[in-house]
Amino acid sequence: MPLRPCYLTFDDGPHARGTEVVLQVLEERGIQATFYLTAKNLSSDPELQYTLVKRMLDRGHALGNHGEDHDPETDSQYAAASTEEVLSDFQKNRAHFQKLFERHGEVFPGFSSARLPGSGSAKPPFVEMITQKLRQPHVAWTFEFAPNDHPGLAHIDRRNWQKIQGLRATQDELPAMHSIILGHDAHWGGRADLLRMFIDHLRKTMMFQTLGTPPSRNLRAIKRPPQEAPPRSDREPAAQSPRAR
Ligand SMILES: [Zn+2]
Predict the structure, then answer these.
(1) What pTM was estimated for this model as a whole?
(2) CA 49 to CA 41: how far, in whole Å?
(3) Domain extent at residue 82
(4) Ligand 1 mean position to 213 CA, how many Å?
(5) Is 179 among the domain residues?
(6) Could you tell me which residues come within 8 angstroms of residue 144 by beta carbon, excluding any fewer than 6 positions away?
(7) Ligand 1 center from residue 117 Cα (angstroms)
(8) Number of structural domains found in the chain
(9) Residue 94: CATH number of its domain
């Protein structure tokens, strides 16, 4: 039976202990994921922040914009925020990583998609801002997993998921084809074995792809001959193919 494609995503990185474990397990298994980054995380240790993000890129993972400070996140913050503020937050996040890479003599290739924090996917004007102003696909999620004993996250209520002791998910079943699977970097420090079990269980029937158009493809698309290019070819081509690898 052919393997069903799905998309592993990890939010709120980079994280000092968790991201290292996630990257290690993905590298062992030779699979790629999409990391939604927030500049404030690890801003106290820019060297480690740079090292982890560079490693993501070197190993073929995709990067997504998750906003500079992860605000708005709650319903009340969403109600109080303006579209301009949210746009500025995402632009600041991109500028932060551009500067971080510049300081290391490198060029940050940019994000290939974006994800609003918290319940953002339920706020259409902000999602529209992402696609229209940032010219990137907004990527929500359809399946979430976490360790049983991580506090909070009451919505992830199926414990010992698929008989994996210590792991919980948002549904009893395996993720459907093309599911966007959400995890968080911070949950996996010291828990490589549990993450390995989850990924190995999925690998029996699923294969992993990244989200958004990789920056190198964007460049190639922009360099297409004029007769092939759509009108306004300077626009981000990723917005038209949110799930293309
Ligand atoms: Zn988040």
Answers:
(1) 0.87
(2) 8
(3) 4-240
(4) 21
(5) yes
(6) 153, 155, 156, 169, 170, 181, 182, 183
(7) 5
(8) 1
(9) 3.20.20.370
